[in-house]
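Input C-alpha cells:
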C-alpha cells in the first residue's frame, strides 16, 4: 500500500491508498480552474461509487482472501470511460489536473486492484498510524547516525509492532531472543497471535 511516489511503481502487487487520491481530487474540485473542478468532481463521485460497492460487498459477507471480478465487471464500462477522461486531462494546461490524471494512468492497476480483491484495505491509514510514533521518535532523537544503528532501529520497530499486532509481549520475546543467543541456541520465531 503506497502513496503516489513513483519509486514504488516497481512493486508488482502494490495497492494505492485511495485517501491520497481522494484528497487530491477534492483539492481539484475546490480549485479555480474550470477543467480541474470538473475532473476533480467527476473523480470524487466515481471513487465514491466504487467505495460504496466495495463496502456493500463486504457487508454482504464477501469472503476474505478470495478474488472476485464481480465489482470490476459491474463497472467495466465506467472504468474505460474514466481512463479515457484521464488520458484527456493528462495533457491539461492546469498542472495539478494533469498530475492527478497521469497518476491514475501510471498506477491504474495498483489503484483498481481492489476491485478484484475487495477485502483488502482502501487506505494506508493503519500503516501510517503504526509508524507515526516511530517517525516522531526519529525526529526527536535526530536519527541513529549510522547504517548499523538504522538497521537495528528498524528491526526493533518491526519486532515491537508485530508483537503488538499479535497481542504478545515484545519485551518477553526480546528477552527470549537474548537468552537463546547467549546460550548459543537457535533464535525463537516471532510469537503467533491469538487464533493464528
Amino acid at each position: 500500500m503506497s502513496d503516489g511516489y513513483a519509486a514504488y511503481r516497481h512493486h508488482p502487487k502494490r495497492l494505492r491508498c485511495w485517501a491520497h487520491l481522494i484528497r487530491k481530487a477534492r483539492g481539484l474540485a475546490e480549485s479555480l480552474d474550470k477543467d480541474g473542478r470538473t475532473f476533480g468532481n467527476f473523480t470524487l463521485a466515481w471513487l465514491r461509487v466504487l467505495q460504496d460497492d466495495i463496502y456493500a460487498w463486504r457487508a454482504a459477507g464477501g469472503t476474505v482472501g478470495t478474488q472476485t471480478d464481480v465489482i470490476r465487471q459491474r463497472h467495466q464500462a465506467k472504468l474505460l470511460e474514466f481512463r479515457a477522461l484521464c488520458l484527456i486531462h493528462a495533457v491539461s494546461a492546469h498542472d495539478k489536473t494533469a498530475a492527478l490524471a497521469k497518476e491514475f494512468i501510471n498506477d491504474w492497476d495498483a489503484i483498481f486492484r481492489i476491485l478484484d480483491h475487495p477485502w483488502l484495505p482502501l487506505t494506508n491509514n493503519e500503516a501510517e498510524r503504526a509508524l507515526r510514533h516511530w517517525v516522531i521518535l526519529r525526529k526527536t532523537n535526530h536519527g541513529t547516525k549510522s547504517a548499523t544503528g538504522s538497521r537495528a532501529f528498524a528491526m526493533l520497530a518491526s519486532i515491537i509492532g508485530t508483537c503488538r499486532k499479535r497481542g504478545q509481549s515484545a519485551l518477553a520475546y526480546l528477552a527470549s531472543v537474548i537468552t537463546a543467543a547467549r546460550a548459543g541456541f537457535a533464535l525463537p520465531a516471532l510469537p503467533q497471535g491469538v487464533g493464528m
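The chain has a mean pLDDT of 87. The chain is about 65% helix and 0% strand.
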